[in-house]
Amino acid sequence: MSPTAPDEAPVRRVAAFFDLDKTIIAKSSALAFSRPFFDEGLLNRRAVLKSSYAQFLMMLTAADHDQMERMRDHLTQMCEGWNVEQVSTIVRETLHDVVNPLVFAEASELISGHHARGHDVVIVSASGEEMVRPIAEMLGADYSVASKMKVEDGKYAGEVEFYCYGENKVVAMEALAAEHGYDLAQCFAYSDSITDVPMLAAVGHPTAVNPDRGLRKEAADRGWPVVSFSNPTPLRDRIPTPSRNSVLASAGLGAVAATAGIATYLVLHRKKR
Question: Which ranges does the record mark as transmembrane (predicted)?
Answer without folding.
Answer: 247-268
